[in-house]
Amino acid sequence: xxxxxxxxxxxxxxLPRTPLCDMLDCRLPLILAGMGGVARSxxxxxxxxxxxxxxxxxxxxxxxxxxxxxxxxxxxxxARFGVNLIPAGTPAELLDQQVQCxxxxxxxxxxxxxxxxxxxxxxxxxxxITVVHQVGSVAQALQAQSxxxxxxxxxxxxxxxxxxxxxPLEALLAAVLAVVDVPxxxxxxxxxxxQVAQLMTQGAQAAxxxxxxxxxxESFAHDFHKQRVVQARADDTVLTExxxxxxPAHAAVRVLRNSVTQGQLGxxxxxxxxxxxxxEGRPIYLFSTDSPxxxxxxxxxxxxxxxxxxxxxxxxIPTAAQRMASIMxxxxxxxxxxxxxxxxxSSPVCYAPAFERERNEALMAQLNELLEAERAGVRVTVQTLxxxxxxxxxxxxEAIHHDEVQWCVMLLHAVRDMGGTTSxxxxxxxxxxxxIENVAERLAxxxxxxxxxxxxxxxxLERVEDPALHKNLTRMLDSHKDNLTKVNxxxxxx
Length: 494
Ligand SMILES: Cc1cc2nc3c(=O)[nH]c(=O)nc-3n(C[C@H](O)[C@H](O)[C@H](O)COP(=O)(O)O)c2cc1C
Hints:
Mean pLDDT: 93
Helix content: 40-55%
Largest sheet: 8 strands, parallel, barrel
Number of helices: 18
Structural class: alpha/beta
Radius of gyration: 24 Å
Number of strands: 14
Bound molecules: flavin mononucleotide
Strand order of the largest sheet: 1-2-3-4-5-6-8-9
Strand content: 5-15%
Shape: globular
Low-confidence stretches: 1-13, 343-347
């Protein structure tokens, strides 16, 4: 079933073994998303055996199935694995039993999603279970961290299945990395090694694969679903609330466009329940969140065909090990390019005269210094927002926070485009700012920091020749000047 030589190739990757890989005890920084229905024992075992980490998708599943699947994984592999649960999408009594079942079975890791449930997290932690929480916003990341989770998965809006936030993965990852201390993995639309290398360069400690591993031989998705994923392009996916039965209201999912999303089957919120399929005697309702599984029959076209925006690069249904090996092989190549030693002759920069190379190095160091400063700004604004109730101050802090995240992402791209490695540090400014207890005084200090950044950007602009970078830095300077004025005006009114 498994192609061990492919998996072995992948293990020679120079991608670093991250603290998150140590925590989960996997060789490769690839995590199988806990896809409900789809990520069953066969897929989890295949991913683990190939060196990744797998979550069983057990949302709303009965205890007997969880018990059976956990045992089946253990029969196939000695590797660590996890169980995914969704507290907000599960009736309270069943959730209570599911948590107890994970504790009793000594499941090593539990992955959670949607609303942060403090009680469930505390119970799992008390049983020594490692808890990983998927989040879709900075606020949720901070909530999950304060609830005591061991690691986070940041989910970008590109993701298939239920989508919690609305920010693109890169921007959300930058914002979350700036404010949390626990390891962070990235999810949403990831299907290539290039994405894995770039996200890890940005600071993600692993990539989470959903759709890319749904379209494999071991996944429990029905062939109909796998084939549709293979045929689809990113723009065939849509975010919709049409598939809602079984879930909290107003939960968006990313699916492939079909008769439901195109409105051909009527209003999903006013019709009486109508079965369009069945699974071992259980009716599958139109507009429910069930996706076509191997164990189902019925009108698959009208079901929720979950898929992320990474479908463009998915054009076959290989084994999980083959898909992971090809992603890792390409991640390795891109990682080498992004982190090449200075002496490597393949570097285009190396063909350039020495002075030009030095100038590029100096520029990248300055951009990284700005990145660290902006990251500190993101962190200060988030933590200050938690202490501020005055609407005008909040509005100002939120606007500054938004800008600083935007400049972090711009700087990340700029360093990356020059072939450099992005700094993962946060400027010392953060500690200094947070040591100031009075919010108005901290805001004044933040403004001095913004003033320092504006001065450095203005100096840099005199030396930057690349027109695109020049334009972006000019926008960054203008936005800092704007914010400086706004904060000064705000403080004068106080
Ligand atoms: C078919 C499918 C089912 C999913 N079910 C769950 C689930 O039960 N629990 C969960 O935490 N996430 C679930 N997700 C979301 C994933 O955790 C993850 O965010 C997503 O798959 C990442 O995007 P990608 O599919 O583009 O790789 C599901 C995703 C898909 C595609």
